[in-house]
Design goal:
Blueprint: H1 7-27, H2 33-40, H3 44-51, H4 54-74, H5 82-98, H6 100-112, H7 117-126, H8 128-144, H9 153-174, H10 182-199
Helix pairs in contact: 1-2, 1-4, 1-6, 3-4, 4-5, 4-7, 4-8, 5-9, 5-10, 6-7, 7-8, 8-9
């Protein structure tokens, strides 16, 4: 069966992003594009044709992860059920933090930030900054619709993210974390959402 137009490029894109996330997580920001190309089974030139540079490749990796995390905020029913949307967002965010590859990528970015500030900036802008901004936009809409009363959506987004991942993320970076099962992740996300809704109820 012939492939639809664009299907080959999509498959290559996913292979490149999967390989890059794995290689960066194992070897840090200094990992070679040659190694990423080898893992993805594409040429190095193909990677550069897709992304242009290492910072853009990092942005693409993190943007894919952030799109998964923030997806619950974009569902049609999210605006009518903000608490459920916040629970789903928090669950997704904490689950991502607890994934070993996500932790490795964050840790290696922190470790290499002084030597590779452009790559660290790319990670931050595509990751934490974007996820918080999308949450702030959601809170702003909910406030306009009268379901929440959030005076500073950007600050409130930071508060919510901090409640969900704060201590867990620090423990991961320090290498002293313990695994959270699905029930614990659900409990943390739901508790954070309930407290947040109570604090910002209209």
């Amino acid at each position: 069966m012939p492939r639809a137009p664009g299907q080959i490029d999509l498959a290559k894109t996913e292979a490149i992003l999967d390989a890059a996330a794995q290689v960066f997580g194992e070897r840090g920001l200094a990992a070679s594009m040659e190694e990423i190309a080898r893992r993805a089974r594409v040429s190095k030139q193909t990677i550069y044709n897709h992304y242009g540079s290492k910072p853009e490749l990092i942005r693409a990796i993190v943007d894919r992860r952030v799109s998964e995390i923030t997806a619950p905020l974009l569902l049609p029913e999210a605006l009518d059920h903000p608490e459920d949307a916040l629970v789903a967002f928090g669950r997704s965010m904490l689950s991502t933090v607890m994934l070993s590859r996500g932790v490795s990528m964050l840790r290696m970015t922190v470790e290499a930030a002084a030597e590779h500030p452009d790559l660290a900036r790319a990670f931050f802008e595509a990751g934490p900054a974007t996820s918080r901004r999308r949450l702030a936009e959601f809170l702003q809409i909910e406030t306009a619709n009268g379901r929440l009363a959030v005076g500073d959506p950007a600050l409130a987004a930071e508060f919510f993210a901090g409640m969900v991942v704060g201590a867990h993320q620090i423990s991961q970076l320090l290498g002293v974390f313990r695994e959270l099962d699905e029930a614990e992740i659900e409990r943390v996300a739901r508790e954070a959402a309930q407290r947040f809704m109570k604090a910002y109820s209209a």
